[in-house]
Amino acid sequence: MTASDTQLLSPNQRDHADVVALFGVAIVLISVHLWLPSKLASELVFTYGNPSLVTAWTAATIHDSTGHLVSNLAWYGVVIGPAYALYTIWSHRRLFWLLYGSLLVVTPLATVAVDYWLLYLQWGLVGPNSIAFGFSGVVSAFGGLLAVGLAGVVAEWYSWRMSTVTTLAFVLSGLTGAAVRSPFAAFESTGLVAGGVLSVGVVGILLRWSYGRSSPQQWLSAHYDALVIVGACGFVLAALVISMFTVESISAGRFSNVLAHGTGFVIGVSVAAAGSRLV
Predict the structure, then answer these.
(1) Of the candidates 175, 68, 70, 178, which has an alpha carbon nearest to the alpha carbon of residue 132?
(2) Are 135 and 72 in contact (CB under 8 A)?
(3) 112 occurs within a structural domain
(4) Residue 135: inside a domain, yes or no?
(5) By Cβ atoms counted within 10 A, which residue in 149, 153, 163, 231 is the most buried?
(6) Separation CA 89–CA 201 (nearest Å)
(7) What residue ranges are annotated as transmembrane (predicted)?
(8) How far is it, in rounded angstroms, from Cα 193 to Cα 187?
(9) pLDDT per residue over 173-212, tens digit each?
(10) What's the domain range around 189?
């Protein structure tokens, strides 16, 4: 076998294969929603009064409406694209796929397990006939993957201290936005907290991204590409955090499971951080 024979895929072919693989999850979810008989779909959701490992995992593929599916797919695309780009820039493409596959397998089981233990067994907030379903917990985990990728790229270009401040500023901005949007919090108090958190975040970023002896114009010119990449990915991260943690009133017996979103995000950060330490 010659050296050229070992190159099974060219860079372009590899990129196309990656895109197809990322779209594969969306195709599976769409196919399940469109063509799986409703009777069978109802058996694949997780029922708190009748828990099983099988439905704990299959529930992530079930959506009760087209709008629910479209929302999760939209966020999946918005999050996974920048995450893939960051890990590629970070020269950790193989790590991305290892983490991606791991989160697809682990997250549905972990989020349902935490839900079952807290919402059903400990707090009694859901009854035995209540069900859990949807892909949002996995999307939240990919948000954690994005956060670690963002931190890794900033650390690679600058320092871990700067990456920590920058990433936390985006996450805290998102949490603040979620608090402001919550119908259960007084706007005056949350507005004050929001202003404080955002101010601290902005000051922290400016201190860590200081331009030293160069002029602002010179610094912006030298760091333009980094600012665009970090700013765009950070905006996506903050927007996702707002969406994940906005508490909504129960409507027609349904509610957005903020606990599952939080669990997914923590799992994503934990798994991605652990994986990045192994390379």
Answers:
(1) 68
(2) yes
(3) yes
(4) yes
(5) 149
(6) 25
(7) 19-36, 73-90, 97-119, 131-155, 162-180, 192-211, 223-246, 258-278
(8) 10
(9) 888 888 877 766 555 444 545 555 555 555 555 555 555 5
(10) 65-247+254-277
For the segment 60-92, what is each residue's pLDDT rounded down to a tens digit?
A: 999 999 999 999 999 999 999 999 999 999 999
Amino acid at 175: L
User: Which residues 6+ apart lie within 8 Å of 133 measured at CB?
Assistant: 45, 46, 59, 60, 62, 63, 64
**What's the token pair of residue 188?**
């005056």
- Nearest residue to 150 via CA among 197, 194, 89, 191: 89
CA distance 146 to 79: 7
Q: Is residue 29 part of a domain?
A: no
One-letter amino acid identity for 67?
G
Give the separation between CA 219 and CA 228, rounded to whole angstroms: 13
Q: Write down the pTM of the prediction.
A: 0.88
* Domain tally, the chain: 1
Asked if residue 160 belongs to a domain, the reply is yes
What stretches of 61-92 show up as alpha helix (H) in DSSP? 66-89
Please list the alpha-helical segments (H only) found in 210-257. Answer: 216-222, 224-245
